């Protein structure tokens, strides 16, 4: 990284108050960098820059295909520097290098995918009556804000900013205070393109300061937020004051539903992977395991064996499981484990800190399998954000569906069965935004619409659906 500053109106700057915040390596506790602690005034400057540019003749007449070419250049630059960027992401988030490399590739894919869409945003002609020509235009919404979480910093800033710029908007993005580094790197990449100044603006800072200021800013036209339900709700309230639309992606308590006729080896592999990836700090983590009673004991034994084989270490050692993000998240997990014990949980494996020589200052948590919780208990219902999976039994398909739908979330579900009719029947009954049958994640799925039912949020990101977030529909009727 060359810069450790904010990027506003094409300039690298410190915050107006010149205050800083530290970002740390979760594997060692060491300070990695200091970045500006942006506040309301800095957000104002970024929004003004984005507004000025949005309304400028230069941006309004900028050819869509040229926007696409720039986004394509960003994809190329991400790939050129992939190793360096992956290392940065690993140091900042703690995730194993292989996972960080996949994140960089997914980010490049987002830019590539939306680059191709920049000149393919169509309206429609609508038959009304003779003598009237009616058509719709899909116009950019204006200044778009992007509040990004710490679990997939580069991927999440890429998925929404690529779609927003492709559709002709300008951007104010705020990375999470714990993981701002790859967002700054992305700003460096934009800086090296011929994107007009003020299209991409980056403000670093705390959620309660910079994040809140963005949410309540009257001159922001749309907010995309990924994070907790509580903060998502606060962002929505801020936006409501100015009647601004939001797209919210708020996590989940996603089930893997394992029927007795499934390919068990394949299912075990993915059940473990879906909760181990990024140390379980993934909105779509498979954190509930619903298994048909007839195979439950056998299946759980296999899951436990696999969980105990997981290798734990620093992200740069590139093993299976890295540390939890920070002290706050780690204490939160320990608290969940205490509650689980009080709720009568049986720990089949894990449930505690991983002690390893040389890693005493890191936040390492053992892969954990819990059984015996009531489906309506606190730990069965709440997102833990840890490598912790809770198991439940069902007898019938109907019970499986009820259990799967039995939380306030609805982001993702996995169905494991060789019975095709059953797979589709169950998929049709589950209230979640993405259903995977005999797989989980489909390799990332930049092309697949993604988002939640219920408290998992609303609006869709990824795929062509995301373009709706960033365009406003206008109807034009001409009498001839
Ligand atoms: P958070 O929701 O508070 O933070 C996410 C982003 O929102 C960060 O950029 C943060 O700076 C910003 N933010 C915080 N307060 C804000 C406010 N008042 N207004 C505007 N923006 C604000 O998440 P957290 O506290 O870091 O994590 C807590 C829990 O949230 C996790 O344990 C997990 O359950 C959930 N989470 C979910 C996701 C996801 O991908 N859905 C990501 C991160 C966290």
TrEMBL record:
Domain Aldehyde dehydrogenase intervals: 12-476
Keyword Oxidoreductase part of the UniProt annotation: yes
UniProt keyword annotation of Membrane present: no
Keywords assigned: Oxidoreductase
Pfam families: Aldedh
InterPro entries from the UniProt entry: Ald_DH/histidinol_DH, Ald_DH_C, Ald_DH_CS_GLU, Ald_DH_N, Aldehyde_DH_dom
Active site: 249
A molecular function GO annotation: oxidoreductase activity, acting on the aldehyde or oxo group of donors, NAD or NADP as acceptor
PANTHER family: ALDEHYDE DEHYDROGENASE-RELATED
Record family assignment: Belongs to the aldehyde dehydrogenase family.
Name the UniProt record assigns to this protein: Aldehyde dehydrogenase
Protein species of origin: Planococcus donghaensis
């Amino acid at each position: 990284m060359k810069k450790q500053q904010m990027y506003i109106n094409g300039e690298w700057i410190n915050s107006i108050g010149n205050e800083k915040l530290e970002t740390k390596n979760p594997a060692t506790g060491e300070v990695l960098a200091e970045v500006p602690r942006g506040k309301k005034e800095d957000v104002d400057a970024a929004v003004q820059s984005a507004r000025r540019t949005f309304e400028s003749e230069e941006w309004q007449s900028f050819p869509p295909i040229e926007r696409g070419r720039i986004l394509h250049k960003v994809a190329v630059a991400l790939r050129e520097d992939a190793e360096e960027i992956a290392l940065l992401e690993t140091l900042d988030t703690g995730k194993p290098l292989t996972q960080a490399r996949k994140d960089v590739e997914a980010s490049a894919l987002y830019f590539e995918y939306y680059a191709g869409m920049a000149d393919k945003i169509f309206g429609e002609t609508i038959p009304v009556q003779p003598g009237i020509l009616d058509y719709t235009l899909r116009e950019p919404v204006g200044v778009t804000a992007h509040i990004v979480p710490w679990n997939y910093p580069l991927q999440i800033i890429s998925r929404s900013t690529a779609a927003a710029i492709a559709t002709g908007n300008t951007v104010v993005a705020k990375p999470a205070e714990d993981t701002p580094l790859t967002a700054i790197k992305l700003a460096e990449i934009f800086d090296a393109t011929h994107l007009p100044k003020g299209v991409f603006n980056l403000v670093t800072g705390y959620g309660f300061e910079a994040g809140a200021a963005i949410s309540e800013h009257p001159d922001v036209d749309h907010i995309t937020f990924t994070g907790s339900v509580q903060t998502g709700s606060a962002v929505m309230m801020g936006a409501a004051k100015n009647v601004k639309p939001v797209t919210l992606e708020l996590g989940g308590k996603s089930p893997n539903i394992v029927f007795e006729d499934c390919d068990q080896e394949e299912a075990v592999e993915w059940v473990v992977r879906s909760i181990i990836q990024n140390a379980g700090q993934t909105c779509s983590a498979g954190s509930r395991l619903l298994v048909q009673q007839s195979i439950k004991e056998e299946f759980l034994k296999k899951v436990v064996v696999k969980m105990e084989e997981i290798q734990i270490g620093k992200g740069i050692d590139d093993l299976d499981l890295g540390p939890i993000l920070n002290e706050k998240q780690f204490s939160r997990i320990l608290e969940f484990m205490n509650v689980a014990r009080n709720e009568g949980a049986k720990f089949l494996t894990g449930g505690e800190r991983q002690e390893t020589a040389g890693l005493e200052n890191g936040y390492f948590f053992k892969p954990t399998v819990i059984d015996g919780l009531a489906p309506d208990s606190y730990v069965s219902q709440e997102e833990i954000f840890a490598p912790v999976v809770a198991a439940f039994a069902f007898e019938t398909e109907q019970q499986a569906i009820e259990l799967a739908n039995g939380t306030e979330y609805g982001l993702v579900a996995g169905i494991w069965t060789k019975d095709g009719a059953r797979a589709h029947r169950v998929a049709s009954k589950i209230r979640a935004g993405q259903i995977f049958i005999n797989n989980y994640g489909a390799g990332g799925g930049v092309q697949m619409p993604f988002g939640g039912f219920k408290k998992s949020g609303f609006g869709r990101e990824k795929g062509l659906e995301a373009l709706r977030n960033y365009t406003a529909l206008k109807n034009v009727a001409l009498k001839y």
